[in-house]
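Exercise 7. Given the encoded structure of a 532-residue chain, write a plausible sequence.
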């Protein structure tokens, strides 16, 4: 896995009521500064019922699986250029000259192939070997999930690994290959956490995001406008702490500092694969010459660690039963909560709102009607059963994961010689070669999805739509498969889907509709992703 490093789309929302307007900016940068939109948009408060009759929905998008054909065996095209110079050139193209998507598109066009050789950042001086074989279609990409063919050891951040000083001196679960003995133990511990706290998730989410909306309304009344990012970050962190550990951070010594401490800590891990919007050569010198020294965030990390150690006693007790020290378990709990889960919420929630907002009032009306009807039918409560009665809402969430997956880059090292198939050819990969996949190209493959570049809200509704779920890959595996001790699929796969559904439900139980304005900023926040 790796991280996006281009400007990304951010969402600005404004909710209007008869006497006031609420401007919600979901834009964040690497500082605490929030940039507000110049165009204001409207979300009306929910009425007792929705009177507007929605248009008849279009039938779900379906697609037939391509027929099997005999593919030619070809040599993998592309090259790595002159040593040192080639990786630097590719890095500058990736971050600055072309940008990430155009970097890949131009190479596909040049080689007339979705499988090719290239260099991936950060390269010199951070990563000694930036050479990869890129897999940029839905047919070749899934080999990265096959742990019988690829090794995942120390590849969580790609061709380099941050210092373990940033994680208490331990190699965290995300960096372990399933063949390593501790992988199963640590993954089992996270399964235990999720199972033991499953009944707390919905109440914790409702409480935390009710506070978010109350905070926004209060700020609106006082200032006439409000900022969404800080409130969302705090609500997300509070939710995770309440759901997993039964603690409310503002009531502890950590206070409300959690989100800012996490952001700083993540920067020191992901700096080499980020673009912060600084002048090109300043950024290259600062981020890609030498690693940022872990000592600069040691005290911040210790504050986070102390909070988790004091809050997670029952999980640490279980860790000892599994043969894991309390200290190692705590560092893993911190990473899974702060880097994986919180980072995912911080990035995917605004992106999901962006796509729903762009879809317009027709979708919003349909969602509001579906969500409120299901809640009424279940005694006025949000339950798992109620959400199963919301097929459009579920499809919208899956489509969000498909069109803009929060884990865009994946890596794996070939364990042996084997063949990889794209739609057009077969290629031979040698043992030890680094394989790299850019997931948005795989999940927007036009040979799998009709209107692949469009956000189609009802794409996954019905039997035909559900058959496409195997091509939704955000969790380091197909949506139709489940995380196991012996694979690298995200432990919290179902948890992440659940909290994303809860966001949509909480929004449309309160509001009829909303519009958005999109601006481009640097992507430090988008780099905070989750994957186990």
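Solution.
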């Amino acid at each position: 896995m790796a991280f996006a490093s281009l400007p990304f789309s951010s969402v600005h929302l404004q909710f209007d009521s008869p006497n006031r307007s609420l401007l919600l900016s979901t834009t964040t940068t690497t500082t605490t500064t929030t940039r507000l939109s110049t165009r204001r948009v409207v979300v009306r408060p929910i009425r007792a019922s929705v009177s507007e009759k929605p248009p008849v929905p279009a039938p779900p998008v379906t697609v037939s699986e391509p027929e099997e054909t005999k593919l030619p065996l070809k040599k993998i095209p592309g090259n790595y250029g002159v040593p040192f110079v080639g990786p630097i050139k590719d890095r500058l193209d990736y971050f600055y000259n072309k940008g990430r998507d155009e970097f890949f598109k131009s190479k596909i066009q040049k080689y007339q192939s979705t499988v090719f050789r290239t260099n991936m950042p950060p390269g010199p001086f951070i990563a000694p070997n930036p050479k990869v074989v890129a897999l940029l279609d839905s047919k070749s990409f899934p080999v990265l999930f096959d742990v019988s063919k690829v090794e995942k050891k120390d590849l969580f951040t790609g061709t380099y690994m941050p210092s373990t000083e940033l994680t208490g001196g331990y190699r965290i679960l995300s960096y372990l290959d399933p063949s390593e003995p501790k992988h199963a133990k640590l993954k089992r511990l996270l399964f235990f956490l999720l199972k033991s706290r499953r009944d707390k998730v919905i109440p914790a989410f409702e409480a935390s995001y009710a506070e978010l909306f109350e905070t926004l309304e209060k700020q609106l009344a006082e200032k006439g406008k409000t900022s969404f990012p800080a409130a969302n970050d705090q609500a997300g962190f509070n939710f995770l702490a309440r759901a997993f550990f039964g603690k409310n951070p503002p009531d502890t010594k950590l206070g409300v500092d959690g989100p800012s401490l996490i952001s700083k800590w993540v920067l020191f891990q992901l700096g080499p694969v980020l673009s912060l919007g600084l002048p090109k050569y300043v950024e290259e010198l600062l981020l890609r010459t030498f690693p940022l020294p872990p000592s600069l965030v040691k005290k911040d990390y210790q504050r986070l660690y102390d909070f988790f150690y004091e809050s997670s006693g029952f999980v640490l007790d279980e860790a000892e039963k599994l043969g894991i020290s309390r200290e190692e378990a705590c560092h893993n709990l911190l990473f899974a909560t702060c880097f994986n889960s919180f980072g995912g919420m911080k990035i995917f929630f605004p992106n999901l709102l962006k796509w729903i907002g762009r879809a317009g009032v027709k979708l919003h009306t349909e969602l509001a009607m579906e969500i409120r009807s299901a809640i009424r039918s279940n005694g006025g409560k949000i339950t798992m059963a109620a959400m199963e009665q919301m097929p459009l809402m579920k499809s919208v969430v899956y489509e969000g994961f498909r069109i803009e997956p929060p884990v865009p880059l994946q890596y794996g090292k070939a364990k042996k010689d084997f063949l990889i198939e794209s739609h057009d050819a077969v290629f031979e990969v040698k043992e030890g070669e680094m394989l790299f996949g850019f997931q948005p190209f795989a999940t927007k493959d036009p040979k799998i999805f009709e209107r692949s570049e469009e956000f189609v809200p009802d794409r996954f509704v019905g039997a035909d739509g559900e058959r496409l779920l195997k091509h939704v890959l955000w969790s380091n595996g197909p949506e139709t498969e489940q995380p196991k001790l012996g694979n690298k699929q995200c432990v919290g796969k179902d948890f992440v889907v659940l909290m994303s559904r809860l966001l949509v439900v909480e929004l449309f139980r309160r509001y009829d509709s909303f519009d958005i304005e999109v601006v481009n900023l640097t992507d430090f926040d988008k780099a905070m992703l989750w994957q186990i």
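Remark. The chain has a mean pLDDT of 87. Students should compare their own answers with the one above.
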